[in-house]
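Reading a protein record of the kind used here takes little practice once its layout is understood. The fold follows as a row of integers, each naming the local backbone shape at the matching residue. With these conventions in mind, the following record can be read line by line:

_____
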Amino acid sequence: MDAFLTPDETALRQRIRDYFRDGEASGGGAPPGPAGSHEAGALLKELGFPGPHGAGDEGKEAGLLAKALVVEEVSSASPRLGRELVPVLGGEARGVPGTDSEAAEIAWMIGVAAAVLEACLKAAREQGFFASTLMDHQKVQMALGDLLSGLESARLQSYRALRLIDGGDTARGGEELRRAAGLAGRAHSEAMGMASALLGPRWLSEKIPGNERSR
């Protein structure tokens, strides 16, 4: 998937992953649980996105794909913190009403689906009966494979759409983004179902915003 990203975008993605990985190792970084707008703003500043619309220190606004990458990667590590980033990076700075906010929402759904997939993979490898784990069951393997396939399709479609918009082709990019929204919504819905089955309602209520009533 990184083949669709520029070197700067790939480096940004790695900085975010390093931020959370190093935070886990040192006890610092962003927590996986509830997060507030202050913490989200601090993270943006550390990543070089201190402005209200994701502008860097030099004042130049970041591309829409770069901003979506921030939401997606943060959401995959901490869905609640990623939720806080959606309104911050989803402003209407591009002059195309709804585009930035829609892109941020799509990125959040993709990031959450990725977080759920990772947690479900871990649970499937560790849970089971006697000498068998859930991962040994073909039905579970197929469900996880379907989720991965849907997630990657949504991610690819969103990158294509945002690249078009960043390049100035807002008409075609907008059409592609609507397709991405459908794919991301489907992946998110499948992820919630998978999480409910493998991880339980309590995990959903604690980790994913909007699922507090699941408890």
